[in-house]
Amino acid sequence: MLHNYMGPCLFQAGLKTYFEKFRYANARTKDLWTALETTGIDNVAEVMTLWTKQTGYPVISVRLVHAPDGTYSIGIKQQRFLADGSSSKGGSLFFVTSVSRFNRLCLL
User: Fold this and answer.
1) Whose C-alpha in 32, 63, 70, 91 is 20 to 30 A from the C-alpha of 46?
2) Alpha carbon of residue 52 to chain centroid
3) φ, ψ for residue 16, nearest 5 deg
4) H or E, element range at 13
5) What is the crossing angle of helices 8-21 and 29-37, to 10°?
6) Which residue did the predictor score with more confidence, 77 or 8?
7) Beta-bridge partner residues of 63
8) Looking at the domain assignment, is residue 28 inside a domain?
9) CA dihedral 83, 85, 86, 87 (to 10 degrees)
10) Residues 65-108: tens digit of each pLDDT
C-alpha cells in the first residue's frame, strides 16, 4: 500500500535513507516514517498511523449508479473488515490509495 502511495522510486529512496541511517543502530517505527518523508511525501506518518493503529482493514465497495437523466456516477462505500466477523462502529476511516502499476526503472 505504501509503495503504491509513494511510487516505487520515492519508496526505495526513503528505504535507502532509513537503512543508511540506522545500519548499526536501533530504530522505532517513527524513524521509518521520518525517513520516508525525506523524499518529499509529507504525511507518511499520518497515513501509516491510520493503517497500523486500527484493527481490521478496509473493504471498499464500488457501484455504478445510473440516474434517470441518463448520467452515471460512482458510489463508493468503505467498511471495516474484522477477521472474527464482528462489526466495528466508530474509529477513523482508512486512507486508501488507488491501486496502480508502475513500469519504470528506479536508479538510486
Assistant:
1) 63
2) 10
3) -60, -45
4) helix 8-21
5) 130
6) 8
7) 75
8) yes
9) 90
10) 888 999 988 888 877 888 887 766 666 666 665 544 445 555 54
